[in-house]
């Protein structure tokens, strides 16, 4: 049995959503604190070895929006696409922000999606709740971009690092099939 140690994450059997911080409602916070926390978590993920590289960038979108976009490259040729928008609730150099739009999508290169949490697209019959996740059958299939959708209460929406832990659980469950090759930028689909 493989044991992954990332911060408090110590076993692939751990239920990430049982973490108390995931059960708290999102509260507004200073952007500097949000960014520092993000940087700390990304450094922990890199040290643990599942994440091998990332190209996440913060973009200012006018006075009221800040966006985090990019990719996280992982073992097993897994690429996590990230798009998250934060609403600025104050003005100034260090505004108070609150995340409100999310899309975290994990994909195995040339195979298909393995997990997605999002609230960025129009609601449909299969995605009837604003906060939802898409799970996918194993092995991944390039033809399945919707997967099985299920509601997730807003106060249980995972932080980005928790999403990466979930993807790591999937990887270590199928490590023999996926191998240890890392994902690289050259594997990105043309936009």
Q: Would you kindly provide a brief summary of this structure?
A:
The chain has 191 residues and is α+β, with helices and mostly antiparallel strands.
Could you explain how this protein is built, in words?
With 191 residues, this protein is of the alpha+beta class. The chain has one domain. It contains 4 helices and 9 strands. It has helices spanning 20-23, 31-48, 160-173, 175-178, and strands spanning 29-30, 51-54, 57-61, 65-74, 78-88, 96-108, 112-118, 132-135, 148-151. Strands 1, 2, 3, 4, 5, 6, 7, 8 and 9 form a 9-stranded antiparallel beta sheet that branches. A hairpin with a 3-residue loop joins β4 and β5. Mean pLDDT is 81; it is low at 1-24.
Can you tell me the number of structural domains? 1
Proportion of helical residues: 10-25%
Q: What percentage of amino acids are in beta strands?
A: 25-35%
- The low-confidence runs, each spanning 5 or more residues with pLDDT under 50, are 1-24
Gyration radius over CA? 16 Å
Order of helices and strands: HEHEEEEEEEEHH
Number of helices: 4
Termini gap: 38 Å
Mean pLDDT: 81
């Amino acid at each position: 049995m493989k044991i992954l140690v990332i911060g408090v994450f110590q076993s692939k059997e751990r239920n990430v959503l049982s973490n108390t911080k995931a059960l708290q409602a999102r509260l507004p916070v200073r952007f500097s604190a949000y960014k520092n926390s993000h940087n700390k978590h990304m450094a922990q993920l890199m040290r643990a070895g599942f994440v091998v590289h990332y190209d996440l960038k913060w973009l200012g979108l006018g006075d009221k929006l800040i966006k985090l976009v990019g990719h996280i490259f992982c073992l097993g040729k897994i690429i996590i696409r990230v798009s998250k928008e934060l609403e600025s609730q104050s003005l100034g150099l260090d505004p108070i922000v609150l995340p409100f739009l999310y899309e975290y999508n994990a994909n195995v290169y040339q195979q298909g999606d393995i997990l997605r949490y999002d609230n960025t697209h129009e609601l449909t019959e299969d995605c009837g709740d604003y906060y939802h996740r898409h799970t996918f059958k194993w092995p991944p299939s390039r033809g399945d971009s919707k997967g099985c959708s299920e509601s997730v209460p807003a106060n249980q929406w995972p932080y980005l690092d928790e999403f990466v832990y979930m993807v790591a659980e999937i990887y270590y469950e199928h490590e023999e099939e996926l191998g240890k090759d890392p994902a690289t930028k050259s594997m990105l689909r043309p936009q």
